Amino acid sequence: MRHRPDRERPATEGQRRRLAPGLSMRAIVPNAITAAALCAGLTGIRFAIADDFEKAVQAVILAGLLDGIDGRAARLLNAQTRFGAELDSLADSISFGVAPALIVYLWTLHEAPSMGWIAALAFAICCVLRLARFNARLDMLDQPHKQAGFLTGVPAPLGAGLAFLPLYLWIASGFEEFANPVLVSVWMVLVGFLMISSIPTLAWSRLRPPSHLRLGVIALVGLTMAALLTEPWFTLVAVTIVYLVLIPVGVITYAKVRRHTPIQGADPIVSPPIEPGAF
């Protein structure tokens, strides 16, 4: 019996997937948002080169907002792709690793060239290592933190926000003490360590205020937005400090969950899936 040539054999499902012609139209939207976030982060470097550090920080914050949208857009459109995940990770490494490191270096770290550059490199490398760990699935769903609904370490966008804390204080107060290159170098290294650490941090799914406080939370969010419009830098300082306080709260909460629920070897705690953008 003669066999049909290979070119005439019907393609398997895996072959059709490999030969799929490019991205679908649905996938273009979230990936375009990711590209916009990347452009915002790179534009922040451009503003820093021009000594416009306020706009530089604002550009990175805009990148963070767009980074929070692209994953939701992908899920809403059912357009999650491997390409989108890789693009998002690469964009985050630049917007929240390279860009903050260069912005802070151009702001003050250049005054202590050796120490300042090493601190900037340490922050950028830690951000890239965090994203590489995410891509390598070292923090898979069967890990204790994810089973309990926590993140591992500080996410990259929030790490960039923490790195800017001395810059927020300097812009808000005008005190040159906040621009001390030695102290800022130590702070950058500390934030980098928080990003790659295994410290359990609170995910959005864990922030569940009691029912009698939910109206107050809505009012607080509205007041925070108003404060960002009127006193943005002091508000950013306050928001950053609140997040720093939540880090030990997350550690304590995780310890209580671990004590009351045997996570390893038991049924996982039911919690909403961790968002891909929360690296």
From TrEMBL:
Family from the record: Belongs to the CDP-alcohol phosphatidyltransferase class-I family.
Subcellular location: Endomembrane system
PANTHER family (alphabetical): CDP-DIACYLGLYCEROL--GLYCEROL-3-PHOSPHATE 3-PHOSPHATIDYLTRANSFERASE-RELATED, CDP-DIACYLGLYCEROL--SERINE O-PHOSPHATIDYLTRANSFERASE
Domain CDP-alcohol phosphatidyltransferase C-terminal residues, every copy: 213-248
Identification of the protein by name: CDP-diacylglycerol--serine O-phosphatidyltransferase
Signal peptide: none
The protein's Enzyme Commission number: 2.7.8.8
Protein origin, superkingdom: Bacteria
Catalytic activity: a CDP-1,2-diacyl-sn-glycerol + L-serine = a 1,2-diacyl-sn-glycero-3-phospho-L-serine + CMP + H(+)
Transmembrane feature ranges: 27-50, 114-136, 148-171, 183-204, 211-229, 235-255
Membrane topology according to the record: Multi-pass membrane protein
UniProtKB keywords: Lipid biosynthesis, Lipid metabolism, Membrane, Phospholipid biosynthesis, Phospholipid metabolism, Transferase, Transmembrane, Transmembrane helix
Pfam families named in the record: CDP-OH_P_tran_2, CDP-OH_P_transf
